[in-house]
Amino acid sequence: MDQEFSKVIAEVPRVQMSRRRFVGVAGVTVAALMFGGTLAGCSGAGDTKGDGGAGTAAGEVDYGDWNAVLEAAKGQTVSWYGWGGDETRNTWIKTVLAPALKEKYDITLDLVGMDINDILTQLSGEMQAGVEEGSIDFIWINGENFYSCKENGYLWGPFTSYLPNFNDYIDGQSPEVEYDFGSPTEGFECPYGKAQMQMWYNSDIVDAPPTTVEEFKAFCQAHPGQVTYPEPGDFTGTAFISCLIAGVVGKDEFEKLSSLENPTEESVLAVVEPGLDYLRELKPYLWKEGATFPADSSTVATMYADGELILNMGYGAPQDLVKTGQLPESTRSFIFDTGTVGNSNFMAIAANAPHKAAALVAINEVISPEMQLSIYENIGNISVLDMGKLPEADAKAFADVPLGSTQIPLEELLDHRITEAAGPVIPILEKLWLTRVAQQ
How far apart are CA 218 and CA 228, in angstroms? Predict the structure, then answer.
């Protein structure tokens, strides 16, 4: 395979943009938020719990009255800030969502693509400067970034109870809605889409994929040196070992990590130790006999594209790479019978958002059955809607979406979905892997 082709394949597929990736690019800013003078925001300057409900001052919007929200939103231009590196997603927002908002509500959507660290720098800077009407309306935000912003009073809410589509079609008591990487959302975030780990292979080379952790070990034994995973610390690597650990200890046991309070090395080890033993036993059959691991998912993708590896993994299916000819038509995806980890992406409103009414309307439209179906069809994200709450025709529309050769049916994914470990657990899990697997 020529170098240019390998370089193209090495690009991480669009669907691998998960919550952890979005969190991961923000390390510098989270540190700045925690140590760079954010105590000025901890007094709650931006904390608007209960703000905007019935009984607001004259001239303000009663956000509990949806008709009043729609009226206030007319003619507004609302800014949506988030990671801008996904052209398929950007195109969908610009060609599907934005026209719908304009036609139905007379709202102009301004999509602003930025790294999350730049977004948080801008938001915290405006909040600390006391800017009453900032430049950001709502944000694609997740995990530790959400936690820091909410704790510092940089987000407006709670607001999800104002959204008709949230109330009608989303299970507000679902752990994936109530918590974001272990942090209570408390109505300050609305879910946007779901991602879930999948694995894929070339069916012209591999007859049948492993579907249990026992079969996976036998698969690695039968193909020594041709299977590996990114070193945990890379979000894909951590997610993949989470799938294997969950397969060993069981879904219910592993999901204790999603709500573990004040996790310690001892409390996490009590859950995952049998899984770590399994990973240690697996090492000799991996690439370079497990003496080292690829640094990141891009490296694994290159190795897979070059034929050095026979299996790859990521959040979602690599259907776009098949569509563009970067992967063969014989590419197939699979998941373990014991399940794979998944997470949710969220939207939040800045505390000093100048167009809160329009932000509410835009977010409500994103979680409408029509838009969630369109996202599933065009982007491949798993819907955040509760299929049991949808009208029969809408639920059928999701089930009837034609799938590509690498895509797994929505019902099968949701039936095999495992909630990821909480944010504070992740570094502990990665440390345990390093000391009890990699260094053994």
Answer: 14
